[in-house]
């Protein structure tokens, strides 16, 4: 997959945007459990009271708090409040909020400095708890030992009834009051430290608000609505980020797939015969379709999860540790089990993923061979054999897929079982800590949610690891094609053909060997074709005729020697210029789906209809268009051509491909044994018309028929990759044994028929 990352450069802005948006989404998702914890801890358990420093208090409460504060703390606390009475300018507004103001003055918190309030939190919280406890003891003396045991060595149960404890404490030495504070600290340290102290202080503040006549339900509802609104806002933010990220990821993946298909096709179009011999057609089709589709699908998941999952996992671990460090071992245990499961699945499935793509290639190859060779299969009654061959390839692929999917499908139920087990374990351990007052219920709920987020992150990473092996194989197969060096390319310093162009062809000491072969196919080929000549090439089967012809358009490059056209080495001119001078008709006639006109204009898209009709006439193909009419009364040239020209006979396809080359009107014509499907009469008529049509162009005709080439200006005879004869028909009959043997065998065959 790393080999294809460079093709993501055009989308780096999208990728950067995705990373930023995922960071925002992760933070929004991670904030939700904390807000849920606050709703439970503060909104429900504390009635919406957040701070230990009250918003307002009665004067006597402030005096009583001062008993348990240092002089500096007491002065600092008083500085944060203003005394409001009936003479205050904002009395009418405040009395509705604090009804007790109608009976007595009330201290109201100034628009506070947050740092000052935070500085006083712990001291005021401890004092509030003591004041509330003492007030409860005065109301219920019999519960003194239960409500505030110890009191720093001061036994409240032995005091006479009706004793004013606050007056008593005011007369008590400061050191003894300090002992009471230390006893309170020790008690809350055992219950959970400052968090437990602040929770107890919130209940004391709530009691003070009740004494002031404040609407406690309104306070609670206001807090719940505020925190709930923030939760809804962050949820909408996370959802929006997820939608935008999904859109950008889909655009990026689709764009990457489009670019890869374009580059892949462009690369394959530049392949020479050597590269096409390396990659089979079935494999190239699979790579350009199935493999790129796999990359596109996984890329969407990768862009959404490869950054998001680690952000969520790390963030959730840090926040879970802040909520309850003592339970982090549960998360560590779950992650270790999950990582072990991922490693096991990865080690089992990776070898199988590596062979899946080759099995798909094999299946496509068998299907393609049967579809293209259907008539041959039927002619030899091999349907059952081919069915078994396809079924075997299909079973091999299906079996491998089933094995991989069976292993992968185990991941989900095992992961869910592990998640549920962790949930039960967290609730069991957390319940004990809540019962011991070392953890708050909201914190336990938040820890559970963070644990699930950690596990979800690792589960997504596990799915990613399960997908990566196969897509890595697919990506490497695509990269293998894209990184293949094309052996035939334009020269770094190309030159142009001289004008006016003279279509001469010269082979100088040419030898050729196919890539990977041990022996040369052509050896020391030397000949010259003058402009305007018609030359025939004949030889035994496998003598190298087609190979010789394929060197002219540079489908392959010579191993030794050089080929000159117009006096210029063809390796020094641009491929486009070279092939623009050549009209090539291959052995296997190939038509493209479309119309007759579109196939003929494949040679020259601007060719007028008159030229098309003339080319058809010369190619003896006029009877084809006369027998067909276009749809809706259109020109016969608009008659439909099926894929590969399947709605035409072999001879009709050959004549149409010949007409296509004639439309181009090149300087050099190459006919590679393309008259083989024509009867002798049509062959003779076509060659006669061709001689008049080509004018001064050079014509090279490769044929197995002596009758097709005997009227050529001269004939080249090949045998086992060497030239064994050159000359006219009459000269070769007298001097070349191989040519004479071929000619006499064909004459005997004609005589016998």
Explain the overall architecture.
By secondary structure, the chain is of the alpha/beta class. The chain folds into four domains: 2-34 and 226-482, ABC transporter type 1, transmembrane domain (ABC transporter transmembrane region fold, Up-down Bundle), CATH 1.20.1560; 59-211, no CATH class; 499-581 and 666-753, Rossmann fold; 590-665, Rossmann fold. Helices cover 62% and strands 9% of the residues. A six-stranded mixed β-sheet has the order 9-12-13-6-14-15. It has a four-stranded antiparallel β-sheet with strand order 5-4-7-8, with no helix packed on it. Helix 26 crosses helix 27 (737-752). The chain is rod-shaped. The model is unreliable at 146-153 (pLDDT under 50).
